[in-house]
Amino acid sequence: MPPDAQPVQTSGDGRFLFLGVVGVPGHIDRLDLATGRRIPWKTLKPEDPTGVFDVGSPQDSPDGEALPTPT
After folding, report:
1. Bridge partner list, 27
2. What does the DSSP assignment read for 1-69?
3. Domain ranges across the chain
4. Model confidence over 15-55: pLDDT tens digits?
5. For the whole model, what pTM was predicted?
């Protein structure tokens, strides 16, 4: 497990582990479990980062295709 990342969830097909990296901007990367290759997937940043010091606890949808809409 990379020291700068936290596990978010696995992809629906079990091929990837999504890794969240907190900060501004935050990132979600995909870790290919077969090869160990880390692939950038999404960048998380507010339109106006003034006063924002962290984008934490990223989550993605169960199918691994999108970030969920907050409720």
Report:
1. 21, 43
2. --TT-EEEEE-TTSSEEEEEE-SSSEEEEEEETTT--EEEEEEE--SS-TT-----S----TTSSSPPP
3. 6-44
4. 999 888 877 777 889 999 999 999 998 887 777 767 666 65
5. 0.67
Which one, of 33, 36, 52, 35, lies nearest residue 44 by Cα? 52
Q: What are phi and psi of 9, to 5 degrees?
A: -175, 170
Separation between Cα atoms, residue 32 and residue 15, nearest integer Å: 6
How far apart are the C-alpha atoms of 40 and 43, rounded to whole Å?
Answer: 8
Measure the CA–CA gap between 24 and 38, rounded to whole angstroms. 20
Give the number of other Cβ atoms within 10 Å of residue 33's Cβ: 13
